[in-house]
Amino acid sequence: MNTNPTTISAPAGTPYISVTREFDATPAQLFRVQTDPEFVPQWLGPRDLTMTIHEYDVRPGGSYRYTHKSADGEEYVFRGVFHTVDTDTLVIQTFEFEGAPGEVCLERASYEKTDTGVRLHTHSVFPSVESRDAAVESGMEYGINESMDRLAELLAKEEES
Amino acid sequence: MNTNPTTISAPAGTPYISVTREFDATPAQLFRVQTDPEFVPQWLGPRDLTMTIHEYDVRPGGSYRYTHKSADGEEYVFRGVFHTVDTDTLVIQTFEFEGAPGEVCLERASYEKTDTGVRLHTHSVFPSVESRDAAVESGMEYGINESMDRLAELLAKEEES
Asked: Is residue A114 part of a domain?
């Protein structure tokens, strides 16, 4: 199983959150599980939330919307639009938690082939430092770490099958 | 004619550009000329460029794309997607100059009623300070000032008619 570390960077006083993680997979394999709505609910978010996709139209100008539901019935809805979708290379999309309307951030995910696999690098930029800080304080780091580990597990499982 | 000042703010070391301008119009009048593709080519950009709209679908999930052409035939193409469209209140959209692909920024425009008219406030956030600086150095300030003046002229003309 892939046990590569996840590096999360959120420098104080900036509106950014960056994440880097390497996977033992090809860019095409990683891109597929990250963008295919059949796979997305299997890795996106913490393990204790159940994800339901309402829309996931991965193309420039396409929209997405999904709900994360906790065991005690709490629901968190997220939505956005895809600006750039370059297969196996680059995705740029907006992201909004509907519980904090108007605090929209822009996320960029790039896929880089390495000697042993693929390096995922994401860069999110928020409208303000305060907005970024609020996202960090909401437990985003925990969600990112679990998402990246689940992604590695899913890739390992897909490779076996 | 409206001669209110345009305030442009781009603090050093940040990825932001903010613009504030008041207009002698209602939020509904300003929102209409800012979003209706019939009016947009009449104010968006410097006076010496001719704007052609290829797509301008102002709704959440809608896309836009347009070309600015100079007198000597130089063409500049821009595109993006609308994330939020709250009539007369708030628009959040992505923005990319196709000549600098991948340098996508997120723009927020809000409309606030004042005692004498409406205050437009825009806040753009770039993926990095370098990307913001490059936009500023490209002459963005000149384009913003002319756009805001043209917008005031268009609103005055529409009010007369």
From this structure: yes
